[in-house]
């Protein structure tokens, strides 16, 4: 039985990045032997075991043969005869196909170290095309390592294009696509993920709204870049402070409300994220494009976004408007809003919400209003407070 550290831990160590998790491959062992040593089995089709003390993953060396469509249609051989080189060959990129033995020696049969030095993401073998999820994974790696100057090898990008055009990306689950998207959005340069997908036609099936409209795509990319330039990273290559809700809303900033709903439904985006994107798409124009805020407009926004009962979500909504405000412009107008102007407007919106919230519904009831009259009187009182503030 031989144990090797593989994949991301080896790659990131060589790149000088912090290693957050370690995966191991075990050559020459059977499931029974792993269980006898106290490991817990977590994978049935792909025998994966958890270390009894560290809970790190140890997978038996395996080969895979494509038997069906999608990313699950594989036949796995995890017998003791499978070699380390055979296991590494099934991996996606050469930079992920480097192993380190227990003495610290590197095993690199597919020249991953050379590609690391040349800052190239290159597929290991033609078997790459058997797993459509790899189109999104490579786009994510390109995003993560863009700050180091990494690019995708031409032959790999060509293979990704052929995979996307084949239609097999539709066999993926929404959950897996969203997982890769979410992780990429949280990187320092999330726009790289979508530019990569566009270059290989990987947007067509899952991000049709962005694929079909050049202007919508460009608007989303520009909003994401505003996040990059307006926030400071903790250190080079680290995640930026803007939340996933803000980043996804920025991506969708060029889409209509209906298009955002369609995209969120297709990707099965969680409600906390889709809510902000939909709110932004519905109200961005009225809050950003108008030269002057109107009391009626603000009251409508407050009511529709339920700002009264969900102030934290409304604050997130305002945060999501920032990168859009800095590059969003109406075709009938010229120029864009600078950061100081938006800061003033955001402050005014917040003050208007506080003023409207100060209206006491019990005072209205005490005046004799009943039933539907209460809501109307409440809205009128809130409108008066907002109007007084805006004058």
From TrEMBL:
Residues annotated for ATP binding in this entry: 8, 11, 91, 137, 140
Keywords on record: ATP-binding, Magnesium, Metal-binding, Nucleotide-binding, Nucleotidyltransferase, RNA repair, RNA-binding, Transferase, tRNA processing
Annotated ranges, domain tRNA nucleotidyltransferase/poly(A) polymerase RNA and SrmB- binding: 149-210
Matches recorded under CDD domains: NT_ClassII-CCAase (cd05398)
Keyword Signal carried by entry: no
Broad EC category: transferase
Residues of the Poly A polymerase head domain: 3-122
Protein name listed in UniProt: CCA-adding enzyme
Extra facts: A single active site specifically recognizes both ATP and CTP and is responsible for their addition.
Catalysed reactions listed for this entry: a tRNA with a 3' CCA end + 2 CTP + ATP = a tRNA with a 3' CCACCA end + 3 diphosphate; a tRNA precursor + 2 CTP + ATP = a tRNA with a 3' CCA end + 3 diphosphate
EC number(s) from the headed UniProt entry: 2.7.7.72
Binding site for Mg(2+): 21, 23
Any single Pfam family the record assigns to this protein: PolyA_pol
Gene expressing this chain: cca
Family: Belongs to the tRNA nucleotidyltransferase/poly(A) polymerase family. Bacterial CCA-adding enzyme type 2 subfamily.
Organism: Alteromonas stellipolaris
Named cofactor requirement(s): Mg(2+)
Binding site for CTP: 8, 11, 91, 137, 140
Known function: Catalyzes the addition and repair of the essential 3'-terminal CCA sequence in tRNAs without using a nucleic acid template. Adds these three nucleotides in the order of C, C, and A to the tRNA nucleotide-73, using CTP and ATP as substrates and producing inorganic pyrophosphate. tRNA 3'-terminal CCA addition is required both for tRNA processing and repair. Also involved in tRNA surveillance by mediating tandem CCA addition to generate a CCACCA at the 3' terminus of unstable tRNAs. While stable tRNAs receive only 3'-terminal CCA, unstable tRNAs are marked with CCACCA and rapidly degraded.
